[in-house]
Design goal:
globular, alpha/beta
C-alpha cells in the first residue's frame, strides 16, 4: 500500500506525525543551515537557484502572488526573491515550525531596503489561511516530503492556486545504478553519523533517509499530481537524481 505521508518513528496517525515533524524541526533549527550545507557539500544552493530560474517568468511579474510553503529557514525564498523586481508584491514564506520560520524572518529583514521582500507566515501546509484561487505560484523545497498526507497537501495547494497557476516541489529522490548504491551508503550511514556528531542526537538525521525512502518515486508522484487536478506534470532530476523538481499546473478550468 503506498505511503500516504510522512511517518516519523512513534507516530500512530496523521496528527501525531505532523506534531512529531513540527517538534523535530523546531529542535534542529539552530543548526539546520550549518548541517544542510555541510551534508550536501553546498549543492543545495545550486538546487534552489535552478528551481527559482524555472519560474523566472512568473517571478518577474511584480503583481504575481507567490507562496514558498514549508519554507524552513528561508533559503528557497531568498532564491525566489532574486528574480523579483524591486517593489514587487512580497513573497509569502510559510512554515509551521516557529523556530525555523523565525530564522527565515531574520534573513528577510536583513535584505537591503528597496529590494523585493518576503513576509513570514506561521501556517500549516494542510490548512492554509489563504483565499481560494488567489496564488500564481507555490514552491516547496525539501518540505513536501514531511507532510502527514501528500494527497491532502496537493489538494490544498490546488485550492489556493489560480486556474493556470503553477506548482514546484523540489525534494530528494533515490538514484539508481552504482551511484545509487554509493549514495545509499552515504545517506543511510555517513549522513546520520555526521548529523549526530554536530546536532548531538540521532533521531532527526535517522529520519531523513527514512523519509526519502518512504516518499513516492517520480512516476507515482506524477500520477498523484494528475489525479489531484494538475496537468503538465513533469519531473526534472538534479545531480544524477539525488534530488529533483516536480512541476505542474492547475488546470485552466476551475
Amino acid at each position: 500500500m503506498p505511503t500516504t505521508g510522512a511517518k516519523p518513528a512513534g507516530a500512530v496517525d496523521e496528527a501525531s506525525a505532523a506534531q512529531s515533524v513540527q517538534q523535530m524541526f523546531n529542535s534542529i533549527a539552530p543548526r539546520y543551515d550549518l548541517l544542510n550545507h555541510l551534508l550536501s557539500a553546498n549543492i543545495d544552493r545550486l538546487w534552489w537557484r535552478r528551481t527559482a530560474r524555472r519560474f523566472r517568468s512568473t517571478l518577474a511579474n511584480p503583481n504575481a502572488a507567490i507562496l514558498d510553503i514549508c519554507c524552513g529557514t528561508g533559503d528557497m525564498t531568498l532564491a525566489l526573491l532574486k528574480h523579483r523586481p524591486n517593489g514587487a508584491r512580497p513573497v509569502l514564506a510559510a512554515d509551521f515550525a516557529r523556530a525555523m520560520l523565525s530564522r527565515g524572518a531574520q534573513k528577510f529583514a536583513a535584505r537591503q531596503r528597496g529590494t523585493a521582500t518576503a513576509i513570514a507566515l506561521e501556517a500549516d501546509a494542510l490548512h492554509l489561511p489563504i483565499q481560494s484561487g488567489s496564488l500564481d505560484l507555490i514552491v516547496s523545497a525539501f518540505g513536501f516530503r514531511n507532510l502527514a498526507n501528500y494527497k491532502a497537501g496537493l489538494r490544498e495547494f490546488h485550492r489556493v492556486l489560480k486556474p493556470g497557476g503553477h506548482l514546484g516541489i523540489l525534494d530528494f529522490s533515490e538514484p539508481g545504478g552504482l551511484l545509487g548504491k554509493a549514495y545509499a551508503v552515504y545517506f543511510h550511514r555517513v549522513l546520520p553519523a555526521i548529523g549526530r556528531l554536530v546536532y548531538g542526537a540521532a533521531g532527526p538525521y535517522n529520519y531523513l533517509p527514512t523519509s526519502v525512502g518512504n516518499f513516492p518515486p517520480p512516476p507515482e508522484m506524477l500520477s498523484l499530481l494528475r489525479a489531484t487536478g494538475y496537468d503538465q506534470a513533469t519531473w526534472q532530476p538534479y545531480t544524477f537524481g539525488i534530488a529533483g523538481l516536480y512541476t505542474a499546473r492547475r488546470a485552466d478550468v476551475a
